[in-house]
Write a structure and sequence with these properties.
This protein has two domains: 270 residues, Aldehyde Dehydrogenase, Chain A, domain 1; 184 residues, Aldehyde Dehydrogenase, Chain A, domain 2, CATH 3.40.309.10. Helix content is 38%, strand content 21%. It contains 15 helices and 23 strands. The strands form six sheets. A seven-stranded mixed beta sheet has the order 15-16-17-14-13-19-20, with helices on both faces. The structure holds nicotinamide-adenine-dinucleotide. The site of nicotinamide-adenine-dinucleotide (NAD) has 30 residues, from helix 8 and helix 9. Nicotinamide-adenine-dinucleotide (NAD) binds next to helix 8 and helix 9.
């Protein structure tokens, strides 16, 4: 079984405490590798390496154009190792191999995208109202960035945090989830050959409350970029506030998938099914609340059941598989607990509703694609994030009620609207209080489009040009051309 140390200052580093954590293949239920159990000592070492790299090392002296070229090399390295990285991640978190192939393409492209941005970060000269003063702004890297990521798409999260951070000139310490760290460590190993100077990209592994918390508290970390649950995000925000660290948070969702009577119902049914059962519902953007217009509810639910019944559960490596296992034992239990809660609340289970069993499913933690009808929006199953293949059906009448129910949750990550009316599409996209609105589509992403949440779904945006601002500080510089001191230097302002 392969052992993975931390990746610090370009080297494989053993954990200071000497302890290792087994990482389990959720399909076979077997440990297949082990990772270092990090401590505050390891976090300290990684932050010191990052700080040195971005203040005194080669990275600090490198031109922005050259920095971009190095980042292009990372994209090339990811592209040429894509098949291996995809397989590692599918093995570590149970994501479908077919989906990982697509994601790896996007990851390489994302490195290229931010590589191109590295030498386009500009300040400005400002025509201030004082004739003898020349004033300009510069945009400087914010400092060492700690990137804390969740288990459902670790390589993607590391990329959308680290690529803009590195384009800005920062050095990073990534702390992937203890449930799926290996792909991030493998990507780190590609950095050296790509020409990334030692210390610029570091990875420490281990438990959130140990090495993760140590990074959040570290005095030399300037910025926390976090993807995970709203509970952990809140704790991190509170801790970071004590040292006024900059924080961006990508948290959970309870997203409405809203189907109007005028929609193409076959298209909508396919979108609803992939929106909740894709990745076994383990997506922050899962469309876990189906809001369906009363007049078409019966016919639409029949279409949904037909598609959902055909879903094939199985080995994530098999191209015929539609839905893989639940990635971690605690998450598996959580999904089953929420199914029990929904039943107790009076929701009517019309599909699934228990652990899935059958040939090829023995070793893994599988949950049947589950649909609850007669859900009211006040129920816990309609308000709390399950992060599993569980759909709640809620009926509505008319746009106003759709908006009211759609917005009536603590989260605000994404929403989808299915309609043939362009006017309705525009009205709904404006009225929904979420970071992303999809019209007649679901799970459409681009590294060029900002992604992030409103309300309890987070703070800040990732992806797109604007996310580089999360890793920059603006500095104002005033230069006086005056030959003599002002007559009254004390009232200059
Ligand atoms: P989590 O909050 O349990 O863990 C996320 C990361 O934080 C892990 O690396 C973990 O080790 C670390 N961590 C845990 N406690 C910590 C602490 N006290 N201090 C510092 N770090 C700590 O989340 P998870 O179970 O890994 O992921 C699932 C959650 O992530 C879901 O709620 C999901 O909605 C959310 N998510 C959000 C997005 C998004 O882009 N908005 C994307 C994917 C997942």
């Amino acid at each position: 079984m392969k052992r993975y140390g931390h990746f610090i200052d370009g080297k494989d580093v053993e954990p200071h405490c000497g302890e290792w954590i087994e990482t389990v293949d959720p399909y076979r239920g077997e440990a297949w590798a082990s990772i270092a159990r990090g401590s505050a000592h390891d976090a300290d070492r990684a932050v010191a390496a990052a700080r040195m790299a971005m203040t005194k090392g080669e990275w600090a002296r490198m031109s922005a154009t050259r920095r971009g070229r190095v980042m292009r090399n990372i994209g090339d390295a990811v592209a040429s190792h894509a098949a291996r990285l995809a397989e590692i991640e599918a093995r570590d978190n149970g994501k479908l191999l077919a989906e990982m192939h697509g994601q790896l393409n996007a990851i390489a492209e994302c490195w290229y995208y931010y590589a191109g941005l590295a030498d386009k970060i500009e300040g400005s000269s400002v025509p201030v109202e004082k004739p003898e003063i020349f004033a300009f702004t510069t945009r400087e890297p914010i400092g060492v960035v700690a990137a804390l990521t969740a288990w459902n798409s670790p390589l993607w999260f590391a990329t959308v945090k680290c690529a803009p951070a590195m384009a800005a000139g920062c050095a990073v310490v990534v702390k992937p989830s203890e449930f799926a760290s290996v792909s991030t460590l493998e990507m780190a190993a590609l950095m050296r050959d790509a020409g990334v100077p030692d210390g610029v990209f570091n990875v420490v592994t281990g438990l959130g409350q140990e090495v993760g918390a140590a990074l959040v508290e570290h005095r030399d970390v300037a910025k926390i970029s976090f993807t995970g649950s709203d509970t952990t995000g809140t704790r991190i925000y509170e801790t970071a506030a004590r040292s006024l660290k900059r924080v961006s948070l990508e948290l959970g969702g309870k997203s409405p998938n809203i189907v109007f009577a005028d929609a193409d119902l076959d298209l909508a049914a396919a979108g609803v099914v992939s929106g909740i059962f894709g990745a076994a519902g383990q997506m922050c953007s899962a469309g876990s609340r189906l809001l369906v217009e009363k007049s078409i509810k019966e016919v639409f639910v029949q279409k949904l059941l037909k598609l959902a019944t055909d879903i094939r559960l199985g080995d994530p490596m098999d191209p015929q598989t539609n839905v893989g296992p639940i990635a971690t034992p605690p998450q598996f239990q959580k999904v089953l607990d929420y199914i029990a809660i929904a039943k107790k609340e009076g929701a009517r289970c019309i599909l699934g509703g228990k652990q899935a069993a059958g040939p090829g499913l023995q070793g893994g933690q599988f949950v049947e694609p589950t649909i609850f009808d007669d859900v009211t929006n006040g129920m816990r199953i309609a308000q709390e994030e399950v992060f599993g293949p569980v759909l709640s059906i809620i009926e509505f009448s008319g746009e106003e009620q759709a908006v009211e129910i759609g917005n009536d949750v603590a989260f605000g990550l994404v929403a989808a609207v299915w309609t043939k009316s362009i006017g309705r599409a525009l009205r709904m996209s404006k009225a929904l209080h979420v970071g992303t609105v999809w019209i007649n589509t679901y799970r459409t992403y681009s590294y060029m489009m900002p992604f992030g949440g409103m309300k309890r779904s987070g703070i800040g945006r990732e992806q797109g040009i604007e996310s580089v601002n999360e890793y920059l500080e603006t500095k104002s510089v005033f230069i006086s051309a005056a030959e003599h001191a002002a007559t009254n230097a004390f009232v200059q302002r």
